[in-house]
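To start, one record:
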Amino acid sequence: MAGAQVGIDLHSGSDHRANLPQVRGDLDDPATASLAAIFGAPISIHAQERSGSLRGEGASSGCTVLLYEGGGAHRYDSHAVEVGAAGVLRVLGSLDMVPKSPIEHRARTVISRKTSWSRAHHGGLFRPHVALGERVVLGQHIGTVADATGLTVGKISARVGGVVIGLRMNPVVYQGDALAHVATIEGQSGS
């Protein structure tokens, strides 16, 4: 990343998961926080860089890098593509790399500093009872795991209150699999 000043790393969900459109970055860094606000994803998540990642390499060379995640693996999600493309154009316009984007800014991005996955305590078939972007409270029943006959073998609860930002899409799960990802929202109680 030598010579680069800004980067945007684009991702979809992985491992049979779908993500609410979101950006991740070091929101304690003013330049990164500003870019996240300009990008305008529904949610911006504070996350430290991981060694060996594009964001980590960027940080070590003085480059500001946002990570955008949206949609799911192995499928086309037009909403996630539209949010991502509009955000990239807004960032490029703010850097005078392209004409200012005619795409109006979305509603202000909400900030999260903590996320938590609810995991399967039993193997079976997962049925979510929430959708991406839905608000949940701590302890809320957000899904079930059933055996092959349909008998419930586990109830999945939200480990924190906030917004559902990730869901497992493949119903076949094993003990320990990540099922629902919830981000707490700054300034809101119930988490």
Notes: The chain has two domains: 6-111, 114-183. The longest strand covers residues 17-25.
